[in-house]
């Protein structure tokens, strides 16, 4: 039986894992976080919920639309009429629900930070900060390209110059996400999600109107790229307050009961690799994928999840074909 280790439990890693398992592979997914989903992220906030990563999912390809509209996809999704160019989908109780649906039945090890990757006569050996070791015939890496370069070049010295150049082409913008709980409904216009053409704020969403936080009003604010870059390593609390002051008409200060600020260092892809994955020139199968692969500029943030899904599917297809 073929085996595979996947680094990263975002949608690319989970999609690949699920497809490989369906083909009879033994698969282990590793992720450094406590939960699943990567930027399919939902956080508890004052007994409410707030999505603080991907905000809307949209499909432009048949394979991804087929999954979204399948019984499997619909168990995790509901429509949100916020996307002017097509049906927008969101997780039924937050975006993380989509990741949990894909993860059903998979072997996933969370809280596992990979510190070294080695190849020997029996396959890949992946060592983690906890002292554990995982083995596989094949290895997929779906973490952001800058993190992959650190792991596979700086720490493990495994990649040829051509492989390094391929990953170096992938570029991301950062994003600060501000999560707010309120003691009454916000004044954000229906349907509750707006792309804002403001110097400091890119997006604002009312998670109660969105349908994921019915009992407690919560709001997600995504800062602009310029504001996020300027404040990425600064005082996040002060940055959050600065953004809230600009939305006082919709979020009066006296109604705010809780505020959290989350830093995404690798949020929005601004330059992707043109192919859905990259196969490294290593003796054993090593593939890199994720939302930094596939598609052409400009990169619609609503399509990040689709690119990741297609990348994960393509990597699994390649491995299955090679093992046939």
From TrEMBL:
Signal peptide region: none
Coiled-coil stretches noted in the UniProt entry, renumbered to this chain: none
Segments passing through the bilayer: none
Lineage of the species this protein comes from: Bacteria, Pseudomonadati, Bacteroidota, Cytophagia, Cytophagales
Amine oxidase domain ranges (all copies): 88-317
Name of the featured protein: Amine oxidase domain-containing protein
Entry GO MF terms: oxidoreductase activity
Top-rank taxon: Bacteria
InterPro entries hit by this protein: Amino_oxidase, FAD/NAD-bd_sf
